[in-house]
Amino acid sequence: MDFLNASQYVELFREAGYNNDLAANKDPLNNPLDYPDSDLQYVENRLDQYAGHSDWRDGAINTNWQDQAFNGGAGVTNVNFSASGGDEKTRFYLSSAYDKQDGILIRNDFERISGRLNFDHNVSEKFRFGANFSLTRTVTNSLPSDNQFNSPMQLVALAPISPIRDLNGELTDRPTTTYYNNLIDSENSSWTTTSLRNINSIYGELNVAKNLTFRSEFGLDNLVQNDDRYFGSRTATGQSSNGYGSSRWLKIATYNTNNFFTYQPFLQGPHKLEATLGMSFQKSENRFTSVDGQEFPLDGLTTLKSAAEIVDGLSTLTNASFLSYFTRVNYKLDGKYLLGLSARYDGSSRFGKSEKYGFFPAGSLGWLVSEEDFLKDNSYLSYFKVRTSFGITGNALIGDFDHMGLYEPLPYGLSPGLSPTQIANPNLTWETTQQFDFGLEFGFFEDRFTGEVDFYNKMTRDLLLLVPVPATTGFATQRQNIGKMQNYGIEVLLNSINYSNSNLVWKSSFNFARNINRVRALSKDQSAIPPPYSSYLNGIYVDQPMAVFFGPKYAGVDPANGDALYFKDEAQTETTSDYNTAARLFLGSPNPDFIGGLTNEISYKNLDLVFLLQGVYGNKIYEAAGGYYANNANWFDNNTVAQMERWQEPGDLTDVPQARLGYCNGCSASSRYISDGSYLRLKTISLAYNFPEEWNEKLKINNAKIYIIAQNMLTFTKYHGWDPEVGTEALSNSFSNANLFQGVDLYSAPQAKTYSIGLNLGF
Amino acid sequence: MPSKVFYIPIILCLGFFTLSCNEQLDLKPAQEIDELTALESDANIKRVLIGAYANLRKSDLWGGRILLYSEMLAANNEIRWEGTFTQPREMLNKSILTNNTFVTDTWLSAYNTINITNNILDALAIVKEEDQDRVKGEALFIRGVVYFELAKLYGLPYVSGNTDTNLAIPLILTPSRGVKNNGVIERQSVEQVYQQVIEDLTNAEQLLPETNGIFASSYAASAILSRVYLQVGDFASARDAANRSIDLASAYDKKLMPDYMDVFNKESDGPEDLFTIQVNSQDPENAMHLFYSTPEFGGRDGDVSILQNHLNLYEAGDDRLLQYQERAGGIRTDKWRDQYTNVKIIRLAELYLTRAEANFREGSSVGAIPLDDINRIRTRVSLPEKSNINLEEILKERKLELAHEGHILHDLKRTKGAIVDNNNPELSYSFDDPKLIFPIPLRELSANFKLIQNPGY
After folding, report:
1. Where are the domains of chain A?
2. Helix/strand/coil for B211
3. Angle at the Cα of A198 (from A194 to A202), degrees rounded to 5?
4. In chain B, which among 35-54 make CB contacts under 8 A with chain A?
5. Domains of chain B, earliest start first
6. Whether complex ipTM tops 0.95
């Protein structure tokens, strides 16, 4: 995205102030008496302030703050090493890897070292056991979330007339910069997140009797994460308190066990049967501890030992558990007729006493048509299968104690108090999804061309939603099971070997998916859960896609006076400049109409070339920060170059309203900031060289590969923002539903174009 | 056969898991307790009462924003919003969106606080008898002041008349546990809401201890009550409440500080404070500091600047001019300069001004003659004593003494004044202009079909 340069900035903001003056019957340009009290003078005072030691009138300073936010040479390094071996009784596999990646933004990088060991041993014919062990350490230089002033992307808000450094070579800050110059964070803060994750599992498998085995698995996933932050005495965070530091520790331990019998009787004739019966249990425990302190003697001492004042500290514990019993039966007749039946009985701690358990059965049928006599000798069709299934699944992805009416500690004046946080819903229970699926699998010409096509229809009931309740109850929302949501669509996967001989192989793989999502019902008498915040547009509406954009529809600019206009009625025949009385309309869906991908792999002798194209079509993206950077000079945030198209005089035809300082002329959340998110992207292109056999033998290795990968090299899109592949950070909290803020871009950093060189070694 | 040896413990183990796992599904939160436990004992209810204060102190209530709203709506080209937040700017421009998050959050926090007080009042029987008056008095104080703030912000002014038909806000006087009838409820009239406020605060004044540390006392209740009576134009009652508060507070050594600027930026209550919101580094929110102060003092970027028009109102030599300092590219008031200092809610000086005005209007001299009360305020800031006084001068003294403390909008409304537009001096808003009240938040209208939107939205 392009932002205003210094002379454009000066032009637009002086005009914004002058327009206010004209509206108030003042003309400071032509009547010097009007000048002292005018908004034009106010703007010029601000320009003086933002220019610091320089003079905005001579245009000497022209800072591109956006460039400052991005890392010049984002690089990636990775090295892998693996070895496997063993004998008849014992097998092992071990690997280790190292990755390092610079973020696209300054102050952001990532380093990972990992190791893995898998091991299996047969004690006897009847008993075997094994274990997997993995350990990963990552070190990340972290950034605050995108909506914080010290997020690098927010540098784009600073005025291009502001110098980066003053005459003494120090970074400028407020009042010279409009907002905090967070480049100071680069010099005067540190924020490192170190995590250690250990995933272990062991299993034992016993042939209890003929055809009957028992397998028991136990796993432990342990994450320990430490977050050390220090904001020095020059940063916005530490400025008023001689530095601000924070040490945070997170420990998440999850253990699980699966125990099940498998029965595989040896049946006479065409019958094959496999049956499973068992249980599983999972419990996770999340512990968090943090200490914050301030008043540090100097910026070189950053651990909290040095803080003269500890201002905040806490520890929390939360946990959840799941218990399941399950059974599964698979039956095969003649090697071509398949039947599967399964059932689960799942219990979760997240629901009230009488509502903990859900029952989830499923069944499937399959027919391997290509095994039938009438197709068996067919030379074209090598594989053909028809399958269908129906089943119910459950979802408990909510807060750990959402069913309870709760009070939390909340102090006042250093005395401990209690305050309600949550309204009870003892009836809260599982959200369920009924899914029907019909699919075809096929292969032609000895499977040179294969594919799968699936049609599905899913109906989710009793959605676990946070439902707004009248605040007069004392609460904003209640977690409820309400409504119905449907997802139906088609998925296609095609694989083809286009060409193959001893030296050259060219394979392609194509996938396509179209999903249609509709909310079918909410609770009784309810047809909408409107957007929870004024600056966002995602809501939940019956017969619309989940998280559909809903709000005022921008109708462009009144050619007569430069007012931003919105449609006043549903038919979109009348317009109004009053945002409050604009009709609230559906403004598009963040869900794409379809997504697709194409992978090509070309191998020539020892060289492999792979490239992946991916695309998304028909989704909309809302630029939540548009009101700040594309607001025709509402306030002193730098604006996009497109804002120079603003309305200036009667008769102007444009989509950018008149610039009016301090008067939001079209800057509120509306379809003005929604644009098409469709894109086609060359996601990955890689070239690899596999060492020839004779090299491997000399080097005493199994295999070795050296490769170069480039990511995100090309993107075709009409999206207005930085990057259509937005990954919105979790904006949701207790007031809103998880996954509601889809298709929202709030200063989201674009994906980096990266090149990396790697080496894989296998022993 | 070795398999049998394994077989038995496996079955036992499965059985064991099934039994013990069932219990494993009964988990309890570690940071919260069940609502029934919170209200089951004397000790716990007193903790909930502290929690009611903790909600009242939130930044969207008395933690500062309620004061800011008054200043923004009545900016009168004397102050200016220069920050990036659009919510206060909408108030400055008198073009508030119905989904303005400040307007919404204040509504949410207010009713949350009211619900806590209703829960306490409902559970009063469990409180030890000797403490019942105090607990009840504090709960009524908090409920009364929150309804008062809501009535002023979301309803037309009392002095506009039609108090029986003009709508204020819904009145909830019983606790909600669970959402009954979807929680829908109508707005009550301005009259009904003000009557409830007066009843709550009158009862609170009688029940509360004369003095009560950082918590609501009898003199704080009568002080706020005098403000309510001023707002409804009942000057005799305002005078009497102010006089009761002055007398009682004085008995507990409350007095005007000798030096005006010593009143502000304090971490603990001073001799002049009758009620404040406690702020400290453990509990740092103070929205007035955040928006009025500047980065070197831990504020934002100097979001509110004071304009020369306001400074011109002071007489030369007025010590109150010392509060104005040039910082962060504009004139700032030092009343909210320092971080971690209390939010002034009501201080003794206001009561002298209220007593003076009410005595003057009633032609009485309860407690003191108006001239003496005004001169008390003037001499403290090094201004010469007046020898006679009129209403206009009393109101001006009040405006300057209490400037930037969240009074201006409500004083202009009750005195049927007008507010000049910041940009266009030819444009002004009359005291009863619907643009000077908040909309009912959009989220509330969609959750409660019985609510009617305010005129002008």
Report:
1. 80-270+282-309
2. coil
3. 180
4. 35-38, 44, 47-54
5. 38-210+269-343+403-447 (1.25.40.390)
6. no
